[in-house]
């Protein structure tokens, strides 16, 4: 199939685009590079620098002959800012997203895989979290992801759109060529590894959570495994009942365990600076991915933390200043 990947110059999008190409699909990437990197566009993908919120930009991308599906990964993604500046999140993630769906209808495209998030659940009532767990997002980022899933439901019922939403937990790790380079970086693993490189301490927010060592527990899923799930979702879009799938490893690691594993991987004695809790950080977020395994046939290759951190460390070693220094 020929797939338009919005946000394909970003962290997860570039690895997904690479996975699609390796699986024999054709790829066009649409990205405005506000967070993405031209250097992250995999060889063999066509690149269009454009904003998916602008109907005229979209028409140029959607007009390509032979386009079969869209993977919608472009978004405002930094959870922390979504509480202080929610309008950016509603404009891009909702209004922009509807603009994309309307463009797809104009161009007779009816297949979409959407990058949703564990943030739709909010403060979890159970661990592991199943897809039917109550959805109570605690920031506008999570709310926009949930709202767009609901928009997809309605476009599915009314206009025959085939859609799958993949709710990732914490994407992490790297391929040999593609890794995580955000500005600012808010994700734990790259920040721990950058601290290791810089010989600086890393902040651990909250040490009195009701967990085994007092720090928060999260579920890290290798970005290569996320890419595999996208390829499977694309190939099953026409036959599966449209739906939502969690993508996680099913194993929780605490922040202090991440720091400890990073010490082992890097052989650097990374210092942890114990800091106050941040508002809105649930104690434990761990996925049940049984549905993705049984319905999509998803088989994560890297469920353990150490190989995930090891791949990220090797990428950072080759890109100490991110893509800018590549
Ligand atoms: N990284 C994670 O742990 C994680 C977890 C859950 C969900 N997600 C979702 O997965 C997707 C990818 O996340 P990521 O970590 O790779 O983020 P990212 O910021 O690296 O990638 C997003 C890409 O979208 C592009 N983009 C943003 N607004 C755009 C616009 N208006 N027009 C065109 N391009 C635009 C950015 O330039 C960037 O390249 C996002 O939708 C995110 O919400 C990520």
Would you write up a description of this structure?
- The protein has a 7-stranded parallel sheet with strand order 3-2-1-4-5-6-11, sandwiched between helices.
- It is 37% helix and 18% strand.
- Helix 1 (11-22) packs across helix 6.
- The chain has helices at 11-22, 55-62, 86-106, 140-159, 188-198, 223-236, 255-266, 290-296, 305-318; strands at residues 2-6, 26-31, 46-49, 69-72, 111-117, 162-168, 170-172, 202-205, 217-218, 220-222, 243-247, 253-254, 272-275, 284-285.
- The chain is an alpha/beta fold and 326 residues long.
- It is globular, with a radius of gyration of 19 Å.
- The two termini are 31 Å apart.
- It binds nicotinamide-adenine-dinucleotide (NAD).
- Residues 6-7, 9-13, 31-36, 51-53, 73-75, 77, 92, 96, 115, 117, 168, 170-171, 182 line the site of nicotinamide-adenine-dinucleotide.
Major sheet description: 7 strands, parallel
> What fraction of residues sit in β-strands?
15-25%
What gap, in angstroms, lies between the N and C termini?
31 Å
pLDDT averaged residue by residue: 95
Give start-end ranges of low-pLDDT stretches.
Answer: none
Order of helices and strands: EHEEHEHEHEEHEEEHEEHEEHH
What's the shape?
Answer: globular
Helix/strand class: alpha/beta
Q: Which small-molecule species are bound to the chains here?
A: nicotinamide-adenine-dinucleotide
* Number of DSSP-assigned strands: 14
């Amino acid at each position: 199939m020929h797939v338009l990947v919005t946000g394909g110059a970003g962290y997860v999008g570039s690895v997904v685009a690479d996975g699609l190409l390796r699986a024999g699909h054709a790829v066009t990437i649409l990205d405005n590079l506000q967070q993405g990197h031209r250097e992250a566009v995999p060889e063999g993908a066509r690149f269009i620098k454009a904003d998916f919120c602008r109907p005229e930009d979209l028409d140029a991308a959607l007009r390509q002959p032979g386009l079969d599906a869209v993977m919608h990964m472009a978004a405002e993604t930094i959870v922390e800012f979504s509480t202080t500046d929610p309008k950016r999140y509603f404009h891009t993630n909702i209004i922009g997203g509807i603009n994309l769906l309307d463009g797809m209808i104009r161009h007779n495209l009816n297949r979409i895989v959407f990058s949703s998030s564990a943030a739709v659940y909010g403060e979890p009532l159970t661990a592991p979290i199943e897809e039917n767990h109550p959805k109570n997002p605690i920031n506008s980022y999570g709310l926009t992801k949930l709202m767009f899933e609901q928009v997809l439901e309605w476009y599915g019922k009314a206009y025959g759109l085939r859609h799958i939403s993949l709710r990732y937990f914490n994407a992490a790790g790297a391929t040999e060529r593609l890794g995580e380079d955000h500005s600012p970086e808010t994700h734990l693993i790259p920040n721990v590894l950058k601290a290791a490189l810089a010989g600086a301490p890393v902040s651990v927010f909250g040490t009195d959570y009701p967990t085994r060592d007092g720090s928060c527990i999260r579920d890290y899923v290798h970005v290569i495994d996320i890419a595999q799930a996208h390829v499977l979702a694309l190939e099953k879009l026409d036959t599966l009942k449209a739906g939502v799938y969690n993508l996680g490893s099913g194993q929780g690691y605490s922040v202090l365990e991440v720091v400890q594993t990073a010490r082992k991987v890097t052989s650097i004695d990374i210092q942890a600076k114990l800091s106050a809790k941040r508002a809105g950080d649930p104690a434990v977020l761990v996925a049940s991915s049984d549905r993705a395994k049984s319905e999509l046939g998803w088989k994560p290759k890297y469920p353990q933390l150490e190989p995930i951190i090891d791949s990220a460390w090797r990428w950072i070693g080759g890109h100490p200043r991110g893509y800018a220094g590549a």
